[in-house]
């Protein structure tokens, strides 16, 4: 009979050597399995990992739900437990996977926070152009909103990937995938003004091609962009909880409201699945109602 101690250590070694997971990920998996073991001990069920069946796991789900865990945390634990039993099955310690019919709790899909065009104008209006970084920050906001970039894509944007005369920028997104994104004339203008200021900087070694730099001539960090956005939103009196990603949400939302095709937006955002794009778009009920009234044959 395979004991808990031996099975957990074998599983951990599998994660470390075969799947090459980080120490943090391995620790999370170990904790997930320990929760299942804790449940069995609490309920005086002295069973080994190879003796666990679906009924044990169903009771375990009920137990972690009663602990007050969020659906997201419950899903994390269930994912870890499933991985553990899949390993036992692969190694022939068990003949049937008891987690096969185990379902994770439904996680509600939250609509992302979206700014109106007026709120974006308020944020841009709050930028003090007399400050050294003023024009840079204006170019940053316009680029985020005009192109729907992730913050990681923004800070890695290179001058050699700007095709401003053709109205496009080249972005390296997730999975090192490249995409060409149209850029607005407004953003082009603000970038052009910023480049004049950038030329006056003493640029640090290795940062020559990065578009957005800090005052020391080094590449901007994700944290710095977050700080810039938060401070401008606060100065503009925007009460919403926003981040650089909010401009990406707003980009998609405003394109949809303007009648843009969802597939085109999917390409511009760099999403593999159209379902992901749908979560970034936020259609308000007024717009939805007006669209149906305008286009439905019975209206």
Describe this structure in words.
The protein has helices at about 5-15, 25-40, 55-65, 70-90, 115-125, 135-145, 150-155, 185-200, 220-235, 245-255, 260-270, 275-280, 285-295, and strands at about 160-165, 170, 180. The longest helix has 20 residues, at about 25-40. It contains 13 helices and 3 strands. It has about 300 residues and is mainly alpha-helical. The protein has a 3-stranded antiparallel beta sheet with strand order 1-2-3, with no helix packed on it. β2 (about 170) and β3 (about 180) form a beta hairpin. It folds into 2 domains: about 5-90, Orthogonal Bundle (DNA polymerase, domain 1); about 115-295, Intergrase catalytic core (hpI Integrase, Chain A), CATH 1.10.443.10. The N and C termini lie far apart (about 70 Å).
